[in-house]
């Protein structure tokens, strides 16, 4: 891929803007040699204003989503893409959220330009394990774990029962809920069906990929290949 197309695909500007950037001498190699428009140079050797290029596609990011951000431009308010460098919004192919977290839900959110990976994670047959930390309005009554694990719970306005889910009680009003599907506002609706209300919700794991303790809300980083593999680990429902 030539230099102009490579930089444009990474969001550094339109092809016209990238050509101007190159002609200004802002694009060099690691030795400091100014590069021309038609040069073909290894990705890791290219520098823009002295900085290494963003990772090439396919790219998957792990974002610690804060409250107040939506996952779609169709929803009102700020979107999660605003937490990334502005040029990331211009990448081709684009970065898309893997599933959605609602505006008030925080925690682990993946964004990827890998369509096959996105489909593999969100497809109902994958049954990827999703773990949520829920803080509740009222104390747990004691029947919730059996109800969620039964495989018989049908949410309001639906006809198909939920897959069995695992509840781990952490405190009087706190619990971890592990799901193997991703229906609309599922965690909140499950606790509502059990007579309670979720006041705070955070996704803490996807498969064996846990939200890193050191990653602050609003921060993000690239995922390593072995972390991608961890997403599909420990499928305990067949």
What does this molecule look like?
With 238 residues, this protein is of the alpha+beta class. It folds into 3 domains: 3-52, Structural Genomics Hypothetical 15.5 Kd Protein In mrcA-pckA Intergenic Region, Chain A (Roll), CATH 3.10.290; 60-124 and 209-230, 2-Layer Sandwich (Alpha-Beta Plaits), CATH 3.30.70.580; 130-206, Alpha-Beta Plaits, CATH 3.30.70.1560. The protein is built from 6 helices and 12 strands. It has helices at residues 3-9, 15-23, 115-122, 144-149, 186-193, 225-230, and strands at residues 27-29, 46-48, 51-52, 60-65, 96-97, 105-112, 130-136, 166-171, 174-179, 198-206, 209-210, 220-222. Strands 4, 5, 6, 7, 8, 9, 10, 11 and 12 form a 9-stranded mixed sheet that branches. Helix 1 crosses helix 2. The protein starts with a helix and ends in an 8-residue tail after the last helix.
Total tally of structural domains: 3
Mean pLDDT score: 94
* CATH superfamily membership of the largest domain: Pseudouridine synthase I, catalytic domain, N-terminal subdomain
- How many beta-strand elements? 12
Order of helices and strands: HHEEEEEEHEHEEHEEEH
**Helix share, percent:** 10-25%
The helix tally amounts to 6
- What would CATH call the architecture of the largest domain? 2-Layer Sandwich
Runs in which pLDDT lies below 50 for 5 or more consecutive residues are none
Shape: elongated
- CATH C-level class of the largest domain: Alpha Beta
Largest sheet at a glance? Answer: 9 strands, mixed
């Amino acid at each position: 891929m030539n230099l102009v197309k490579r930089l444009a695909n990474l969001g550094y500007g339109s092809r016209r803007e990238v050509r101007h950037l190159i002609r200004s001498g802002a694009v060099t190699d690691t030795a400091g040699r100014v590069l021309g428009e038609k040069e073909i140079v290894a990705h890791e050797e290219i520098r823009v204003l002295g900085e290494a290029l963003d990772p090439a596609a396919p790219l998957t990011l792990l974002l610690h989503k804060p409250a107040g951000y939506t996952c779609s431009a169709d929803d009102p308010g700020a979107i999660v893409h605003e937490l990334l460098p502005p040029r990331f919004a211009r990448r081709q192919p684009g970065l898309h959220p893997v599933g959605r977290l609602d505006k008030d839900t925080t925690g682990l959110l993946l964004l990827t330009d890998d369509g096959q990976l996105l489909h593999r994670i969100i497809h109902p047959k994958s049954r990827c394990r999703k773990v949520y930390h829920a803080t509740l309005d009222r104390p747990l009554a004691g029947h919730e774990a059996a109800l969620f694990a039964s495989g018989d719970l049908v949410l309001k306005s639906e006809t198909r029962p939920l897959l069995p889910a695992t509840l781990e009680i952490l405190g009087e009003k706190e619990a971890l809920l592990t799901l193997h599907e991703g229906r609309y506002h599922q965690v909140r609706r499950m606790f509502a069906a059990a007579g309670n209300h979720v006041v705070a919700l955070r996704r803490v794991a996807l498969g064996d990929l846990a939200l890193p303790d050191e990653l602050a809300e609003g921060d993000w980083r690239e995922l390593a290949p072995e972390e991608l593999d961890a997403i599909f680990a420990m499928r305990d429902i067949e």
